[in-house]
Amino acid sequence: MVSSNIVTDLKANISTTPVQSTIQTLERIGAHSHVRGLGLDERLEPRDSAQGMVGQHAARKAAGMIVKIVQNAKIAGRAVLMAGPPGTGKTAIAMGVYGRH
């Protein structure tokens, strides 16, 4: 009987409160999430700072030329190889090319 009384006492002291869900969708933020394009004008000239890209003028212009050549069906390839030491902007350029669509 003692255990029965304990269970009854526990049930009497338990209350429930409805909880509204506050789950939100979050945008993933990464090292290059600010890059939206190559920052080139219509003549493929790089702007000093545009679409999240700063500097790397020659690399941005070269990437823009490759994009334009592929868009005009002058070449068809599956990949472009970018090489260089760490921290030189390869990933940022790739994100900029991806952002041009």
Automatic annotation (TrEMBL):
One Gene Ontology molecular-function label: hydrolase activity
Cellular compartments per GO CC: nucleus
Xref: InterPro entries: P-loop_NTPase, RuvB-like, TIP49_P-loop
Membrane-crossing residue ranges in chain numbering: none
Example of a GO biological process term: DNA repair
Keyword DNA damage assigned: yes
Its EC number(s): 3.6.4.12
Record's subcellular location: Nucleus
Residue ranges constituting the TIP49 P-loop domain according to the UniProt record: 28-97
Catalytic reaction(s) noted: ATP + H2O = ADP + phosphate + H(+)
Leading EC class: hydrolase
Keyword Lipid biosynthesis included in the entry's annotation: no
Gene3D superfamilies named in the record: P-loop containing nucleotide triphosphate hydrolases
Keywords, sorted A to Z: ATP-binding, Chromatin regulator, DNA damage, DNA repair, Helicase, Hydrolase, Nucleotide-binding, Nucleus, Transcription, Transcription regulation
Similarity remark: Belongs to the RuvB family.
Functional note: DNA helicase participates in several chromatin remodeling complexes, including the SWR1 and the INO80 complexes.
Protein name: RuvB-like helicase
Organism: Malassezia equina
Taxonomic lineage: Eukaryota, Fungi, Dikarya, Basidiomycota, Ustilaginomycotina
